Design the sequence.
């Protein structure tokens, strides 16, 4: 069994499945995907992802505010986030983090929000889902500052081995997406070979970043199979063992998930 550890089910392009999310999930299930983590990115979509987790027994969700979805000049309220995290199907915090690639001018606000999410993680014990782009030093500095016992995951990882190693040393997991299959991703493939087997997750980040051979098309949860098969081959492992290991890793990191 596989887990898509990071997908945006509320944003999928469902054209291939005649507009039906049920059909899209069934297509993934038919390919061995047994669980889905639907990711919150804003206060606006928190109710939507919670509703999907309530609707489907094999879907859990996270709640948080993506660094590119912050309201101008305002970090999310801690009491709002803590209330959202009380829901039994909200098994993680985020996605949160820092993105200086697109909004370097918002660095201070992003850091404030990231600290708030990390504080919520320390109060609740729920793992945190981290987005980082163009902000390596500050991301690691804030993770070290938080010193979380339960840690979390650097999702859709695209950095080098030095950053991966630093995150692993802090107790974090590394999640790889379809980017690892791209032709120009040699450095990321080097990371993928080195991550310890018990600290690796797989994801689609759908509807974004479809793996080869679907690159350029809308991504779907069913394509996590391509990511997993590619990584198993890259690491010289049998696919079945790789799938079993990454699923066990997901269960360990997200113990409240219904899997």
Sequence:
């Amino acid at each position: 069994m596989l887990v898509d550890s990071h997908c945006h089910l509320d944003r999928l392009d469902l054209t291939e499945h005649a507009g039906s999310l049920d059909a899209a999930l069934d297509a993934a299930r038919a390919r061995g995907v047994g669980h889905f983590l639907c990711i919150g990115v804003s206060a606006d979509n928190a109710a939507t992802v919670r509703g999907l987790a309530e609707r489907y027994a094999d879907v859990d969700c996270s709640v948080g505010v993506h660094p590119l979805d912050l309201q101008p000049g305002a970090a999310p309220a801690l009491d709002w986030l803590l209330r959202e995290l009380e829901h039994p199907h909200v098994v993680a915090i985020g996605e949160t983090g820092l993105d200086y690639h697109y909004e370097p001018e918002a660095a201070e606000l992003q850091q404030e929000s990231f600290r708030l999410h990390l504080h919520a993680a320390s109060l609740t014990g729920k793992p945190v889902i981290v987005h980082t782009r163009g902000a390596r030093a500050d991301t690691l500095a804030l993770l070290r500052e938080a010193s979380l016992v339960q840690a979390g995951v650097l999702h859709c990882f695209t950095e080098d081995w030095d950053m991966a190693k630093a995150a692993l040393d802090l107790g974090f997991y590394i999640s790889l997406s379809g980017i690892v299959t791209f032709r120009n991703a040699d450095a990321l493939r080097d990371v993928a070979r080195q991550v310890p087997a018990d600290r690796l997750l797989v994801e689609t980040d759908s509807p974004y970043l479809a793996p080869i051979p679907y690159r350029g098309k809308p991504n779907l949860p069913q394509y996590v199979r391509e990511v997993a098969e590619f990584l198993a081959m890259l690491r010289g492992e049998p696919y079945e063992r790789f799938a079993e290991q990454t699923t066990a890793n997901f269960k360990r990191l997200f113990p409240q998930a219904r899997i």
Observations:
- Residues 2-253 form a domain with the TIM Barrel fold (CATH 3.20.20.140).
- The chain has a mean pLDDT of 97.
- The CA atoms of residues 40 and 199 lie 23 Å apart.
